[in-house]
Predict the structure.
Amino acid sequence: MAALLEQLAPSSSVRIGGLTRSFGERVVLDGVDLEIPPGQFVALLGHSGSGKSTLLRAIADLDHGASGSGELLAPERVSVVFQDSRLLPWRRVLDNVVLGARGKDDEGRNPVERGLAALAEVGLAGRERAWPSQLSGGEQQRAALARSLVWEPELLLADEPFGALDALTRIRMHTLLRELWERHRPSVLLVTHDVDEAVVLADRVLVLDGGRFSLDLTIGLDHPRSYRDPRLAEYREQLLSALGVDQDDNHPAKEATA
Amino acid sequence: MTDTVTGAVSGTLAPPAAVPGTPVRRSSAPPGTVVRHRTRRLAPGRRLPYSRLAGPLLLLLVWSLGSVTGVVDPRVLPAPWTVVHTGAHLWVSGTLRTDIATSLWRAAQGFAIGLTVGVVLALVAGLSRTGEALIDGTVQINRSVPTLGLIPLFILWLGIGETFKVAIIAIVVYIPIYLNLYSALAGIDTRYVQLSEVLRLSRWQFIRQVVIPGSLPGFFVGLRLGVTGSWLSLVVLEQINATNGLGYMMFQAQNYGQTDVIVLGLLIYGIFGFVSDSVVRLLERRVLAWRHSLSS
């Protein structure tokens, strides 16, 4: 069924129409429409509680407790990266990376070969036999990225994947994520509340507010982008004002009016 | 643990005792002095080899000294060598060998049954809602009934032979194993459940690779309590209703005022408990190698 629909709509990787999700009385997503073309890198911004994670879970088919309606079309192969690395502490790094993977890929590599390649790609070659607790926070998140790569995803969903990392590690992870994207070209939906992260990484930034998109911004700058690029400031300003952050007095107008 | 940067001391109003180069205690350092704290190590240091034996050996030493100096009355507590001598005598010409064998066999049977029952019930209750509904409440009630209080009833049901003893030991063993394994299985981190859904694990893979390994720490807590429990109930059972075994040997010795035999029995129980606990610890360290905690 899903495969058939995909054939009918080959131009998009994710297609969402009138998606509604609510928990009890609270409506979290209020008729969201979204189309993500294959290979597009999209960042999703929003305040806490704006429904970012709910949208991501809906696409990942993880929202068992929610009720809702709407059309939702997602690719067959979807990988999710969480805010915590979510490595099983009782499995060594390689065993974590290949968890659940089975069968051979198009090049005839078995899961372990794919896992080794993915670990090498994220810079963790040689750490295959380590326990997760022996890795630093950044390394754990690299391993989580490697685990998502093993699935060769058409769509990568990332829920604030660098939120728990320190600023310098985060910048390094941004570069890595962008490199991996260049090489594998999945569609990416990156949930974040870091405006800088969104403008540096994404080709398109969506702002979610009150269960609907309040801004859909295309960022037409070439990669790699520098954090120092002055042209980013304009985009940043647009996004911040869409988020209700007034740059002059630096207090969120949103909070004052709400 | 604290030391003063001497340069700063000499530059301020240092008390006469604080000659540069002399360590200054923090309490005597004048205000404004730069005091550098070294980080205090909070985790205990490396474990010494065989350090777990140190306590028992110290106890043995104190006991020996007490006996040699005559502080300890041999009628109250015979000297260690008297106990060893009695042990050797009973081993060669008495019933000690069969008593030990009987006790070990009882404990082993009860433990094996208790372990099996505890694990099976915990798996059924922890992995299925139906099982949980049927089993968990029942075991919680069983748990609140003192097991040793069941002895009279079990004697009426099963007779005074081996069966009732093994049954009581099995009950004492299965309860902590069930409780700890069940709560570990039921309390599996929802984050890992979500991960398993994302990775499209089958139900069997989820149980095999996520739930069971994740509940092993809890299982080992129960296992250690179970091992201790098997010895504990053995002592009680053999002292009230037995015709052989270590407890019976001690019970008889009580009638004849043989303190040394009683102490010998206690020592053997102690050694059994210590050894079996060590075996479980060793197993735990092997199986839970991924855990890095204070005890590793």
Remarks:
- Residues 78-287 of chain B form a domain with the MetI-like fold fold (CATH 1.10.3720.10).
- Chain B touches chain A through 21 residues (CB under 8 Å).
